[in-house]
Amino acid sequence: MPRKTFMNLPPERQKRIINVSLEEFSQNDFESASLSAIISRLNLAKGSFYRYFESKESLYAYLAGFCRELFTVNTKRLLNAPEKEFAEMWLDIFQSFKRYEAEYPFIIRFWVKSAQDKRLYPKDASEDDAIREKLAMMKESLSGRADGDGLRSDIDIGYISFVILYHLMALIEYISFTYGIRPDQPVFSPTDEQLREEVHRFITVLQKGIHSR
């Protein structure tokens, strides 16, 4: 976790440290990510960095927590917007991802990459624990919308949550692949219109399936 000296930095300086670190960790696996490269790009003396974080592990854990808090609060808020139709709700979520990337260009790539990294969970935790945490948030949010959104009552809400969660992650990868987004570019580089089209396709498949009737 960050030291008090980091938390006392001006917001723009904190943001710069976060962005440089997100880029390094998103472009490399944890072992290959270079703390020296981060320090060099920030024009810091090595000793100065350790006034902010105890170690590379501490920095990595902070970034993961930063992403988790940001996305969890935002996604819960948008999922629990009963005035929004299902499709519009998901478009709002993806547009919010794009806005976050405007501030933190590598935040989605880091989030996706670190999502199932076991080093971020207690030593006795299993990979299933990470999945359960995400499913719990999705289930809680969808449960509040079930009555008014036409979700099928004959399908367990936990199962629906699982399907949506993994379709969501697949859609992020699909967008990167389809639009030729390079690893050093933000994931949500497509235009707003292209994003709207892909989200509409995503929702159509969720709602109608893939079988022609």
SSE topology sketch:
Layout: H1 4-7, H2 11-27, H3 35-41, H4 46-49, H5 56-79, H6 86-103, H7 107-114, H8 127-143, H9 146-149, H10 157-178, H11 192-208
Verbal overview:
The chain has eleven helices and no strands. The model has no long low-confidence stretch (mean pLDDT 84). It starts with a helix and ends in a 5-residue tail after the last helix. It has a domain of 147 residues. It is elongated. Helix 5 packs antiparallel against helix 6, helix 6 packs antiparallel against helix 11 and helix 8 packs across helix 10. The protein has 213 residues and is mainly alpha-helical.
Order of helices and strands: HHHHHHHHHHH
Q: Count of DSSP helices?
A: 11
Distance between the termini: 54 Å
Outline: elongated
Mean pLDDT: 84
**Total beta strand runs:** 0
Proportion of residues in helical segments:
55-70%
